[in-house]
Amino acid sequence: MIENAARNIYKTRILLVEDEHFMRSLLVQALNSVGFSEIREAENGHNALQSLEMHGADIVVTDIEMKPVNGFDLVRAIRSGEAHVPRETPVVFLSGLSDVSTLSSASQLDVQGFLVKPVNANRLREKLTEALHKKITLHPPMHYQPMRLGHASKDAAARDSAAENHATPAPRPPKPQAATQDPSHPTDDSGNIETSLLMLEAGMTLCHDVRARGALLLKDGTQLLPQHIAVLQDLRAVLDTQRFVVKLPEQSP
User: Fold this and answer.
1) Which terminal residue of the chain has fewer beta carbons within 10 Å of its beta carbon, N or C?
2) All domains of the chain, ordered by start, with CATH?
3) pTM for the complete prediction?
C-alpha cells in the first residue's frame, strides 16, 4: 500500500489533522495546488483515529497541539500498533516551533520530519514525497506504549528540564581535530569525527546532546536513524549547532 503510494504520490491517501479550520483549509488548497487530491481531514487526534479505522491512510500530516487527543498521542497510537494502519505509516508533524520543548518528544516517535507553519506548497510536496520514499526504522511496539507525551507530559518535562539544569554538567566529549572532507576517516584517537549536518548518515552515533534553542532534541549516545536526520534537517534553523561529533557505524557500541 505504502509502496504503491510512493510510486504515484499524487494518488496518496493523505490524512490531514489540524484543529484550526482556516489553517486546515489553507493546507488542503496547498495540497490540491501541487496535485494531491486524495485528502481526508480531521480536527483532532480523536477524529483522526476514527478516520484511520474507517478509511486508512498512506501518510499522516498532523498538528501537535490539539484536544482531546493531541498529535503526540495520535502518533504514539500509530507507532505502537493501536491505530488501524501499518505502524510504519509515514508521519509529518506540523509545527509553529513556538514550543521547542516538544521536539524531543516528537523525535522519540520516529516521525519523518516537520513542516513549519505557514507551509509553502512546494515544500509541502517535497516533504511528503521524501517521507513516502524513505525507509522507516521502528522500535518494537512496546517502546512507544509507555510514552507519556503531549499535554500530560509537559509538567514532567518541565521537572526533568529543571533537574537537568541543576545537575552537574556531563563532561564534554574530547574536541576532535579539524574535520576532514571525507567523513570515513576518524579525526581523533577515539574514532570520533566532527562533521556537518549534510554529512550525517544513518548508523552514526552522537557523541553529544543535540539541542534546539536550548531544548534537548537527541541525547548523547543516540544511533542516528534516517528519520532522526530528516528531523534535524527540517529544524536546522533552530539547532544550537551545525556541527556534530559522531562515531562511525563500525565503531558504534
Assistant:
1) C
2) 2-153 (3.40.50.2300), 174-251 (no CATH)
3) 0.70
